TrEMBL record:
InterPro entries noted in UniProt: ATPase_Atu1862_pred, HerA-like, HerA_central, P-loop_NTPase
Domain of life of the source: Bacteria
Helicase HerA central domain: residues covered: 10-77
Protein's UniProt name: Helicase HerA central domain-containing protein
Pfam families with a match to the protein in the record: DUF87
Gene3D superfamilies in the cross-refs: P-loop containing nucleotide triphosphate hydrolases
Source lineage: Bacteria, Pseudomonadati, Pseudomonadota, Alphaproteobacteria, Sphingomonadales
Length: 488
């Protein structure tokens, strides 16, 4: 399914969209000089996709913390916690799918790189069952993945660069989709930039950056000059999630603004000349400046409190009020809708080869589109989806209760092939061949299917028979039924 968001309009005024689901698989690189509108573009992307996918923002300047007020993001102040606490927070964020902003503006550059590396590595190392889809937005990415050694130690540079490389090169299979923004492509490590398949290129002036941007966009070198002429907030976009050919886009307005940013000019004070001199020299100059008035103390939650906040986090996309006292008809209608969604998903090509977390995210989005509550967690979904793959979408149907009772103790990853075999026995249908079982099990290996059947037989769940003609049939002892034979 597709989840498109509008980021702006082209020259003719037609909307330019980004396919968020495609973006999760292909990643995004944003480039533009300071003042070209990169942060505005990232803010638009985050605002429009906040209700669709989990978001993790690495924010070195504290520009995006205002998203918390409008969209419920959890703000994590990197300067308030040590490395162990940052790792615990990141692990909890991955588990509970919390959208967060890791703000690093209170740290020096080396500390920022170390903190971001610990945070990203923990997200990357999450257990397989927690590989939920998430956009990981890194602003000023050249700080965390520098192309050359700078003012930081080699140890910190390697640590940070390794984390960014994992995010962009290997993060896709773990549900992490990198969205990186940089002022200069020349300052960004090439192996990090090269993994992005989508590009939004803003104004830049240096020849080396224009040439690299033109190469990425598939433009001729003589066309690179157009990148220099782009206006603020205008970008050239290309990629499978945006457009197949370079398209100009003017980024649309946003709902939130960065803190303490003065837009435009301010009127100068009326005092001037002698009057301003008298104001400045009205009191004797002290050897030391007078102490500043105390600033309001920023309350930073303890790590334990923040962990509790993350555990109780409900994604914006799932903040739906449950129906009040639903009638029996409504409950039956909801169950039928869920069964229909599961049937549709199970019929899609290669659905069993996708991670369970990604399938569950797809399932919850489909439920929201029908304005119903999913009514199950990831563990329950895995079993219901396995049933749907076996052709049993309705877990309340009376004809399947004996079969489901037997499958209650079957491990989640083996349930779909076992139920497929058991249903064939109930229907008296031919035994599924190795190719069909491999598709259901989510593998291309026939050897794994042979080991699967051996494991099920050793667990006393099935009995495999092969006659003298080489035809295989499978019996289900608990049901006293056998499939029809088929060529093995």
């Amino acid at each position: 399914m597709s989840a498109n968001i509008v980021i702006g309009a082209d020259r003719s005024g037609a909307p330019v969209r980004i396919d968020v689901e495609e973006l999760l698989a292909t990643r995004l690189l944003v480039q533009g000089n300071s003042g070209s509108g990169k942060s505005h573009l990232l803010r638009r992307l985050l605002e429009e996709s906040a209700s669709i996918v989990q978001q993790v923002v690495i924010d070195p300047e504290g520009d995006f913390v205002t998203l918390a007020d409008a969209f419920g993001h959890v703000v994590v102040d990197g300067s308030a916690y040590d490395g162990a606490e940052i790792a615990k927070l990141a692990a909890r964020i991955r588990k509970h799918r919390a959208s967060v902003i890791l703000t690093l503006d209170g740290l020096e550059l080396e500390a920022q790189m170390r903190c971001a590396a610990v945070f990203l590595n923990t997200l990357f190392d999450a257990p397989r069952d927690e590989w939920y889809p998430a956009l990981v937005v890194v602003d000023e990415a050249q700080m965390f993945a520098p192309a050359a050694a700078g003012d930081v130690s080699d140890e910190v540079r390697r640590l940070s660069l390794s984390a960014m490389t994992n995010l962009m090169c290997r993060g896709r299979k773990r549900g992490l989709a990198g969205v990186i923004a940089t002022q200069r492509l020349a300052k960004l490590a090439k192996n990090v930039a090269a993994e992005a398949s989508n590009f939004l290129m803003g104004r830049t002036f240096l020849d080396i950056d224009m040439a690299r941007a033109a190469d990425l966009l598939g433009m001729e070198r003589r066309q690179a000059e157009t990148i220099r002429d782009l206006e603020r907030g205008h970008f050239l976009g290309l990629g499978p999630a945006i457009a197949r050919r370079p398209v100009g886009v003017r980024i649309a307005d946003v709902q939130t603004r960065a803190r303490n940013v003065i837009q435009g000019l301010m009127p100068l004070p009326n005092a001037g000349g002698a009057e301003m001199e008298s104001i400045l020299l009205s009191e004797p100059l002290a050897m030391e400046p007078p102490p500043r008035p105390p600033e309001p103390e920023l309350v930073v939650p303890e790590s334990g409190e923040l962990l509790e906040q993350i555990e109780g986090y409900v994604p914006a996309s799932e903040q739906v009020e449950p129906p009040v006292a639903p009638s029996l008809f409504e409950a039956e209608e909801t169950a039928a809708s869920i069964a229909s969604i599961l049937t549709e998903m199970a019929a899609e090509t290669d659905c069993t080869f996708q991670p369970a977390a990604q399938l569950y995210q797809d399932f919850t989005v489909r439920c929201r589109m029908l304005r119903i509550l999913p009514g199950m967690d990831l563990g329950a979904f895995r079993r219901r989806f396995a049933m749907a793959v076996a052709g049993i979408a309705d877990d309340k149907a009376s004809e399947w209760q004996d079969l489901l009772r037997i499958g209650k103790d079957v491990p989640d990853d083996l349930l779909a092939p076992f139920l497929t075999l058991a249903r064939a026995a109930v229907d008296g249908a031919p035994c599924p061949d190795d190719e069909r079982l491999a598709e259901i099990y989510g593998t291309r290996s026939s050897g794994r299917i042979r080991r699967l059947l051996e494991h099920l037989e050793k667990s006393n769940l099935i009995v495999v028979r092969t006659d003298y003609g080489g035809r295989r049939s499978v019996g289900i002892p608990a049901l006293g039924l056998t499939t029809a034979p088929v060529e093995a």
